[in-house]
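S2.1 Query sequence (Cytosolic protein)
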Amino acid sequence: MMEERDFLYDDVEQTKTRFICWIGETSRFDLAITHSEHFFGKILVLNLLSNRFAIIGADDFDEPGYIAHAFDLEEDAADELERYLSEYIGLT
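Output structure tokens follow.
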């Protein structure tokens, strides 16, 4: 017998995911970046090495330390990831 649930949403959609891996100056980055209408223009970034993820949009780069906190990175690695992601979403 199936349990009854009160879903807030249950959507299925086609997404675009980019898998990218590089070795930077301070760390190795192995990411999956997913584009979905569900996140209202933001991207879902998953760090496959640390099992950490964040939903990131242009406004999140205005928050100092957001990337470092979201991905639990040291400052140098966070700066490198932030530079890549800001280029990726077209901020620079």
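The chain has a mean pLDDT of 93. Strands lie at 16-23, 28-35, 43-47, 52-56.
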